[in-house]
Amino acid sequence: MGGINNRTLLVGAIMVFIGLVFVIKLFILQVYDPSYKFSAESNTRRKVTQYPSRGLVYDRNGKLLVSNQAVYDVMVVPREIVPFDSLDFCESLGLSMEELHDRFVEMRRNIRRRKISTYKPSVFLKQLSAEQYGRFQEKLYKFKGFFVQRRTLRKYEYPSAAHVLGYISEVDDAMLKKDGYYSQGDYAGNTGIEQTYEKELRGKKGVKSILVDVHGREKGTFRNGRYDTAAVAGKKLTLSLDIELQQYSELLMQNKIGSIVAIEPSSGEILAFISAPGYDPSLLVGRNRGSGFASLAQDSLKPLTNRALRGTYSPGSAFKLINAAIALQEGAITEQTKFRCDGPVSNPIRCTHYHRSPIEVAGAIETSCNPYFYQAFKQTLERPGVNTRDGYLSWYNHVRSLGFGDRLGIDIPYEKKGNVPRIDYFDRYYGKTGWRAITVRSLAIGQGELLVTPLQMANQAAVIANKGQYYRPHIVKAIENESLAENYSQPVISTVEPANFEEVIKGMHQVYTGEIGTARYYRNDTIPMCGKTGTVQNPHGEDHSVFIAFAPKENPKIAIGVVVENAGYGSTWAAPMATLIMEKYLSGEIPRRHIYYEKKMLEADFIHGKQ
Fold first, then answer.
1. CA-to-CA distance for 500 and 327, rounded, in angstroms?
2. In contact, 178 and 82? CB cutoff 8 Å
3. What is the pLDDT of residues 561-604, one digit of tens each?
4. Backbone region of residue 79 per phi and psi (left: phi > 0; alpha: psi in -120 to 50; beta: other values)
5. I need a labelling partner for 499 at 20 to 30 A (CA). Which of 78, 138, 402, 571 fits?
């Protein structure tokens, strides 16, 4: 009996041992080494990411600006690859044998670096067209380990507004670590609204499980789609941009370097946003994106640079309007205060325009009288009972409150601050008691250390149009089922009271209507306009042509800033361009008497030296 028990125990032990071996083996196959699980699953089903369509983009009038087009990525699961006819593979995809070799070398390198897995799908070849996909799909069964995945790319309906829209590019390692939404080979917005509103535009990925045979051919959905999740399209954006005004403004700026920004003063909505030279956004889409980007990046004219946000200039005479408003606010001058612009009192800044003398503030704006604004600036900083440092600090705080020296907060990335020099800047150079108004006199006429962006110039016009307040400039007017950020709907109130802009506006109107107004040739008899010319000194070449304006005078609908680099007088180039754009927006046409100026602007070529 004892022998039987021993044999029974022995047999039982053997059975238990064999069972443990099977359990351990199954554990290794299913848990410890998941590659077997993935390999087994891939013989029955394949999980395919369903990429959502990015949100559509429209202009303020409902015109479609950006849509989507289907492309197809060739995916690969490295462990599943078996020897195949490489010549047939290359002919199907339009690849050379060298390109195929390079792609396999890159794939092996990425596997060694653990950037991709041998048992999970990764991108082998990006962005096949529908025609290429159809040709490859017919032979796909020959190439085990490969399959095709659909995604969408941007399609631009107009060759315009590239700096506003931005572009899409493949996510880098930093983005992969920062946001778990993305996987290797995904795309995200880069610059422009595509970057700022990436989370709204990108939508939500879905997953579809597909049954496949041993050759990788699709045999239908897995369990009738029970485990599938649908992709959710990105949200629609409506821009404040008027695409017709945008295109017209770009046309005026062809063969020129500079910027145009037009704003609706009552809302801060940007109507036109030009950085010239620009480029066709379609150049940065599809398989030719790399060569397109390289060409633009190597262009000596730097078309990728967003000059409207990142170009900084002295504002020149356009800034005299700010100095006038501050001088009135501080009581340094009144509407009737007159200064002469000839003789010793005008030194050290001389007048560059012929006009009557002495002259009051509105007349000084009309004629752009340099000595007047130096005297007003000097009175602001050194009026009785106020020392220079305290006077300068008051001036500085007013200037900052009017939107200078800091980012305005536009919803396009990489905006520059510009510069309004602080007191400690002058202290470092001259000592705390070593400088006075005469030392910093260049600020009186918008030169010296003062730097502004074209966006800030346009915003200055909006501030004056609104008599001392502005709405933060923004490009997006509406987001599908969402509200805009609150800071775009709340006005920014400056420290300069509304009454102190009345005389400034009067002078700006006289720039168009006065007998010697610097923009008198561009007067519109049906639209009362207000503007200010600027000829900005440029140590690197010809002066820059600057003009800011708004219209109509009462209840303004558009404010604008124009900078044309190396073009000379503001009255000759920037002023007529701004006037034409305002006329186009407000009435839809150019008056017959201004057709000559339109033709002149369209034909001018400052890049190739033809004027």
1. 9
2. no
3. 999 999 999 999 999 999 999 999 999 999 999 999 999 999 99
4. alpha
5. 571
Per-residue confidence (pLDDT) for residue 38, from 0 to 100: 46
Which pLDDT does position 33 carry in this prediction?
54
- Same fold flag, 46-72+152-238 and 243-278+306-603: no
The residue whose two tokens read 């209507």 is: 513
- Quote the CA–CA distance of 428 and 425 in Å, as a whole number: 5
- pLDDT, tens only, 377-408: 999 999 888 899 999 999 999 999 999 999 99
Residue ranges, the chain, pLDDT below 70: 1-5, 26-45, 212-220, 222, 224-225, 343-347, 354, 610-611
Residue 178: beta bridge partners?
none
Q: Residue for token digits 């006075």?
A: 436
The residue among 110, 107, 120 whose CA lies nearest residue 38 is 120
**Per-residue burial over 91-104, b = 16 or more CB atoms within 10 Å of its CB, e = otherwise:** ebbebeeeebeeee
What's phi and psi for 21, nearest 5 deg?
-60, -45
CA distance 327 to 335: 10
CA distance 560 to 550: 6
**Phi and psi dihedrals of 222, rounded to 5?**
-85, 120
Please tell me the distance from the alpha carbon of residue 96 to that of residue 92, in angstroms, as a whole number. 11
Rounded Cα gap, residues 333 and 500, in angstroms? 11
Whole-model pTM: value is: 0.87
CB contact at 8 A, 59 and 242: yes
The token pair at 327 is 């001088």
Rounded Cα distance between 239 and 262, Å, is 14
SS3 212: strand
Phi, psi of 227 (to 5 degrees): -100, 10
Tokens 């295109």 sit at which residue?
A: 247
Give the separation between CA 26 and CA 7, rounded to whole angstroms.
29
Q: What is the DSSP string of 504-524?
A: HHHHHHHHHHSTT-TTGGG--
Q: How far apart are CA 480 and CA 593, in angstroms?
A: 43
What angle, 0 to 180 degrees and rounded to 10, lies between the N-to-C axes of helices 97-112 and 86-93?
A: 100
Residue 475: C-alpha distances to residues 203, 263, 264 (Å):
20, 10, 11
Predicted local confidence at residue 39, as pLDDT: 47
- The full set of domain ranges for the chain reads 46-72+152-238, 243-278+306-603
What CATH number has the domain spanning 46-72+152-238?
A: 3.90.1310.10
Under CATH, domain 243-278+306-603 is a member of which superfamily? Answer: DD-peptidase/beta-lactamase superfamily (3.40.710.10)
* CB-based contacts of 197, cutoff 8 Å, min separation 6: 55, 189, 237, 411, 476, 479
| CA–CA–CA angle 279, 233, 229 (5° rounding) | 140
Q: Which helix (H) or strand (E) holds 534?
A: strand 530-536
